[in-house]
Amino acid sequence: MHTITIDQLTFRRKEGFQLGPLSLSLERGERVALLGPSGCGKTTFLRLLAGLEPADGGTISFGEKLVTDGKRLTPPGERRIGFVFQDGALWPHLTAIEQLRFADPALSRPDALRLLERVGLGDHAGRRPRKLSGGEQQRLALARALVGEPRLLLLDEPLHSVDVHLRDDLSLLIRKLAEERGLGLIVVTHDREEALAMADRLVILRDGRIVEQGLATELLTRPKTAYGAAFLCRAVCFEAAKVDSGEHAGRFQTVFGLLPGTNGLSPRPQVLVLLPGDVRVASVAGAHTAQARVLSVAPGENGKMATVELAGRSLRVPCASSLSPGSTVALELCGAPRFLERDASAPEGGG
Amino acid sequence: MRRVPYAIALGFCAAFVLLPLLAMLLDSVRSPSGFSLAAYGTILQDATLRGQFLASLELGLVATLLAWLFGFGHAYLTFRTDLPGARWLGPLGILPLVVPPILVAMGFADFADVKGFWSCALLLGLSYAPFVAVLSARGLRSIDGRLYEAGLIARGRGPAERLLARMILPEMLAGCLFAFIFVISEHGVPEFLTVKGKTWHTYAEGVFSLWTRRATGVLHEDLVSPTVASLPLVLLIVLALAIALRLRARSSVRGDQQPLPIRTLGRWRWPALLLPLFYLSGGVGVPVVVMARWAAGSTVVNQPMSIDQVRESFRLAWTEAGGDLRSTLWIGMATTLILLFVALPLARRAARRSGFVELVSVVPLAVPAILLGIGLVHVYNHPLAARAYAHLGDFYDSFGIVACAYAARFLPFGVLPLASAARRLPEHLEEAAALTGRGAAARTFRIYLPLMLPAIWSSACLIFILALRELDLAVVLPAGNGTVVRRLSNVVHFGGENMGGALALCLLLAALLLPILTLLLTGRKLRPLS
Question: Do residues A95 and A121 lie in contact, with contact meaning Cβ atoms separated by under 8 Å?
Answer without folding.
Answer: no
